[in-house]
Amino acid sequence: MIYLDNAATTLIKPLPVRQAMDRALLCMASPGRGSHPPAMLAAETVYDCRCAAAELFRVPEPEQVVFTMNATHALNIAIRSLAGPGTRTVISGYEHNSVTRPLAELGAEVREARGRLFDARAVLEDFERLLPGAELAVCTHVSNVFGFVLPIYEIARLCRERGVPLIVDASQSAGVLELDMARLGAAFVAMPGHKALFGPQGTGLLLCGARGKPLMQGGSGSDSIAQHMPDYLPDRLEAGTHNVCGIAGLLAGLQYVRDKGTENILRQERELLTLAIEELTGSGLELFTGAPEAQCGVLSLRSRRLDCESVAEALAAEGICVRSGLHCAPAAHRSAGTLKTGTVRLSFSPFVTADQVRTACGVLRGLA
After folding, report:
1. Is 219 helix (H, G, I), strand (E, B) or coil?
2. Is the C-alpha dihedral spanning 65, 69, 70, 73 positive or negative?
3. Count H helices, E strands: the chain?
4. I need a surface site. Which of 19, 136, 164, 273 has the fewest CB within 10 A?
């Protein structure tokens, strides 16, 4: 099998991730639900994971790191904390449905800063034009469809200057690009654990620069007599039993990213991206590419002969895993002009080899 669907989930994990989850399953209970050794070991692991995330993403205090089920869960907490009916909100033209659907459900007034694909300056200029009068901004760091790196620090600066709270969707950047919460000054940064942080599915993080409103109410392991969620983080936003096995695996994934270095992961993914572009140039496939600094880890393409689903099915028959369609991000396809067709997406990780990329591209050339 050649696995090139890492923008959805990194299937191949570092071995310590599985080992940590096995140990948690055997040895850990629930944090905050007892003083016996299994509960205390769980509490230590959960706290260690908060600290590892706070260190990697430069969050001032580990208590500002909240565990969620995934990035969608984290984004819903963030958006529902700051948006409501009529909230004037500026988003990029490359957002995932995890951003656009909650805003639509709440009845927010949304305007899109589209800009041309792989043109960071154009996106920034659109944000600058639309931010006056806005009450909230939401922006993805990297497009899940095209790997387009948006100018998130410049957008954050514009938001700070205008007093507009910012929510960052770091689903495709966390673990690959530098992500500095202190430098961003964002209200919230949301990310999954199961992509470039190499944790298991069912894990996510919300980095909190703001207090946040609980999405759920229930047991927190603290202040049990009170009938409202605690006022303090992280307990305020973490109702119910923690996914301790998942958090243990996520801790091992964070440690892998820390030890390998995001700059090395980014370099390796861009080398694979460049190789794929070289192998497919002149094949008759339409490739969506930008300057090296404008793109990371993801290559979208279209065939003029076959629809995207047929291409993906043909690749799957050869043991090559990719994703086709709209990738839960119709806004990005509207911005890029691919809404009617969708794209086939190849996405890389440090566990993909150059030979695997060459083999996949050979099959694609044959299909084209």
Report:
1. coil
2. negative
3. 12, 13
4. 19
User: Tens digits of per-residue pLDDT, 91-103?
Assistant: 999 999 999 999 9
**CB-based burial label for 325 (10 Å; 0-12, 13-18, 19+):** middle
Asked whether residue 226 carries a pLDDT value surpassing 80, the answer given is no
Q: What is the CATH number of the domain that holds 6?
A: 3.90.1150.10
Cα separation, 183 vs 14, in Å, equals: 30
Residues 136 and 153: beta-carbon distance below 8 Å: no
CA angle 138, 72, 299 (to 5 degrees): 75
Domain that holds residue 136: 15-260
Q: What is the pLDDT of residues 33-45, one digit of tens each?
A: 778 999 999 999 9
What CATH number is attached to the domain comprising 173?
3.40.640.10
- Kindly give the pairing relationship between strand 286-288 and strand 298-302: antiparallel
- Using DSSP's 3-state secondary structure scheme, residue 294 falls into helix
User: Is 33 in the same domain as 58?
Assistant: yes
In whole angstroms, what is the distance from residue 236 CA to residue 126 CA?
35
Q: What is the largest CA-CA distance in the chain?
A: 68
As given in the structure block, the two tokens for residue 114 are 């589209």
Give the separation between CA 207 and CA 217, rounded to whole angstroms. 19
**Structure tokens of 52?**
């590892």
Domain total of the chain: 2
Nearest residue to 304 (alpha-carbon basis) of 285, 277, 287: 285
Nearest Cα neighbor of 361 from 325, 324, 318, 327 is 318
pTM of the model: 0.96
